Amino acid sequence: MSNPSDRPKGSVMVVGGGIAGVQAALDMADSGFYVHLIEKSSAIGGRMSQLDKTFPTNDCSACILSPKLVECGRHLNINLMTLSEVLALEGEEGAFTATVRQNPRYVDPAKCIACGTCAEKCPKKVPNEFDLGLGKRKAIYLKYPQAVPLKYAIDPDQCIWLKKPGRCGMCQKVCPSGAINFDDQPREIQIEVGSVILALGFSPFDPSILDFTGYGRLPNVVTAMEFERLLSPSGPCLGHMERPSDHKEPRRIAWLQCVGSRDINRACHGYCSSVCCMYAIKQAVIAREHAQGPDLATSIFFMDMRTHGKEFEAYYDRARAEGVNFHRCRIHSVLPAGHDDNLILRYVGDDGLINQEEFDLVVLSVGLEMDRQAAELARRLGVELDPNNFVATSAFRPVSTNRPGVCVCGAVSEPKDIPQSVMEASASALEASRVLAPSRWSETRKKEYPDERNVWAEPPRIGVFVCSCGINIASVVDVAAVTDYARTLPGVVFAQNNLFTCSQDTINQMAEIIKREGLNRVVVASCTPRTHEPLFQETLRDAGLNKFLFEMANIRDQDSWVHQKFPDEATQKAKDLVRMAVAKVRQDEALAYNTVSVVKRALVLGAGVAGMTAALSIADQGIPVVLVERKDRLGGHARKFYRTWQGDLVQEYLKGLCRQVEGHSHIDLRLGTSVERVEGSVGQFKTLLSDGSKVSHGAAIIAIGAGSHKPREGRWNYLYGKHPEVHVLLELDKRFIKEDPALKEKGQTVFILCAGSRVSEKPYCSRVCCTHAIDQALHLKELNPDMEIFMLYRDIRTYGEKERLYQRAREKGIVFIRYDLDNIPKVWDEQGKIQVEAKDPILDRPVRLHPDMLVLATAVRPKVDADVVSRAFKCSMTSDRFFLEAHMKLRPVDFATDGIFMAGLCHYPKPMDETIAQAKAAAARASTILAQDAIPAESITAVVDHGKCVGCGVCTMVCAYNAIHLDEDSRLATVDTAMCKGCGACVAGCRSDAVTLKNIGNEQIMAAIEAAMEIC
Amino acid sequence: MDSASDKDQKWEPKIIAFLCNWCSYAGADLAGVSRFQYPPNIRIIRVPCSGRVSANMILDALKAGADGILVSGCHPGDCHYISGNLYARRRFALLKNLLEFIGIEPERINFSWISASEGEQFAELVREVTTRIKTVGPARHLVKEIG
Questions:
Q1: Residue range A232-241: average pLDDT?
Q2: ipTM of the predicted structure?
Q3: A584/chain B closest Cα distance in angstroms
Q4: A556 contacts in B (CB within 8 Å)?
């Protein structure tokens, strides 16, 4: 800040509208800062919007993404700037000035109703880059069906008029709302913000430079991104999975891994792209689901299978069980088969013989690389890049760049998957708000509404607005007849037909009509409530009506658009839908806008690196934190760590962290304490601690860590606990920390990776051990360059930029010997000397080693008291006993129960940088609650009629949110309104009709059903 | 005689569809956005979750004169409310058995998963369900008719 007495800006700029940017923007805006979200294309959504399904849950990508995009697009405190790019950033943390160029859309977003008539009539067909050129779009286009903003744009490079004015102009002629503006000009805008978040994403590697793949030459060699579009129901072949050359369904598909990754020769990318193994498995599994014909054959050719994330290993196991073939080899070249555009792959099989196999389609699992424009932007902003061209970060500051006030998140700093990107997005939101905290809520806007009229005693006075939607509805449905019919319905006192009900002038008029006609219920017959209900509900509030006195009849998306050839039936259906909506709205009641006041205090459970980082992140914002630790000292698991994979010493960092926590005025530290009981819900938790005190808090973060497995018995014991020179990883770290001089004297060390991991007893991969063990081996080499080191492994999983350690280890002469579960290493003691025997798969014969030290990379295992914590907070766990997040992809630090968050090893094994990022993310998510005085709660909630309740308790069993409970004395069920999400499971489950859902009760639904069956 | 067969020929089934807000209703919208055509016999009622749909609602719809029912929710594992669709599935498996027992053709009661991205699948489903219900004819079991 130029003048230190100036308050920092209360706003922030987020660059990049992919999932990371969207999450960062939402977290910032929800915690009291005004956000400018800059997106270079015509709509937000980024790469994730192009994906078909997401691993490991096979969720539909668009379905889980869309609600976030809509929320972002509608947020009062997010200024969405599409078709925009950042030209320059001046100033410093707290007071930046950014210059942004907004390119012309040539379509007025205020007027565009996304009817699509323009694109239908546009004569210019061009390859659609959203489908990676596999499909076509027009020169005027919508980026994708669920685009936010849902507004068309003209591609200036393709538009006939823009190239030669006067030549075409078809869109302008047919646009029913006059939205086309060929005179639109680029604008340069100055934005003043306190901090900046870069969420620039990645580019898929372009394999055209790799001649051996045949990409670009052989039509049936596609990239994985292209294959996503081929699988997608909204893609170029509507999800029918056709191969490019002849649009036939492929019967045999091969995936080639590491195209443009782990390849320093040709692709110049030494790093691992982290996500390709999983997406290839996912594509193989989904392709098998899509296949119409019998038995689609799927084969994945890989070097190391890297399924290092939560539930990934199980996904890999399932794929193998379902018949996906895995071949451990790199393909030399893809050859044309010479007939039917098929392809030949030659590879060495498990038996050591060369096989030749024919495929109909080859998918290249292309890696992730830094986007060229993004790299240029980073340089323009003075942000340093690392040797792989990604934005440089460090282990202890994983979301900070070299330029203070400029944070980073997502794949732009290292290849990573969606949950990790989302986690970092929240973390970067916290980091970006750190300096801005004094200016929280200073630039945000808050909407004010007039007092609501009490309509309870009034007879229904219903107004019906029937929309023509230009010609979208009117060309099929006789809207005049529907409007006339609406007037005859009981309770309707006003009906009107509008050209565009959602246009600003009609909205204003609607508010006037509500007041003038004294309406107390409103029905809009137009498009879908999913996109437009909030807009009309807002209009009701502006006119002093409760927003729940409203219904929509979907006569466009579910009527005129799907019955185009049947105008009479469609008109009849529109009348039915209006009658149903009127019947239901007649029964609707005004509902309270529920809120819960927030106790501005956080409870953090566990004082390891995750817990301490989270506690400090919240306390630094001036919010008090109670930090509870079961042991009588700080530090947790990290006390045993020597250094991070990036090479930073952990103990020094940890000491600094402990000092900050101990000296922090806003942290109330409770050592030797545990949680006994938790009551209440988000905003209003009350937790009883073992020291007898009761803490009120608005949110909680669980960071209770994990331990390392000690194989004291069984086939993975390997002399552990029996020979003094057999260690698990962290015991060797302890010797590093103590600078044990004996280590230098070792002549030979053997590491056994996956010692007891990825087997039926412990099926998951512990993510960190490969990197950790290799880094230890490298450190041993630093201590004694002559030491012989052997690593027995199953798959080396040095994902992302950690791959460089693996590379360095091989350069240093560390020998890697792969083993499989049929031939696990044998270890025995011969007169005090450790003996190891392993079968070398390349030599195909046993290798005998005589190490001075044996190091076992064992699993990271959940804490035994995790179950206790899970029960106290009523939050779920996975079958591996790690905590289960609300959504694997998009809510990686939230529990399904609102107001409780998680960080660190108790979520899943992860290295230090990811733990710190997750702790900051948890703090950011908690801050979105703790920054508010009160938070909104669901208005449409369940209520129990105690006169009818028989106390059977079925409702408590079916409730997924623990929002309904049975009083032990009265045997009556009661709903905790603050926790109820309004799903209605309890209503349907109640056997005595005692539970109802407000405004979606049995009466309302029955009214709609009966109305549907009436004949008019 | 003539008028009766006339009536039967003109008969079009009335189908009530209960669609969950988060997946299937969105899938129905996508069918519209993508202009996938389907027969105009269904009347959609939006519910928060397929788990909200009780056996009573289905029986009431049949009593009110519906010839068929369609309930559709998110795919297993995708439920916006964690597990509502699974309760729904269990509930309808039982209900379908019961209705069959009392003589209601199983073709009338349809349960399905449609995600928000399955516009074409939704259109196809409506086509299938409509055809199926047309083949079994008007529902008369639970409808009280005068005369």
A1: 84
A2: 0.95
A3: 10
A4: 32
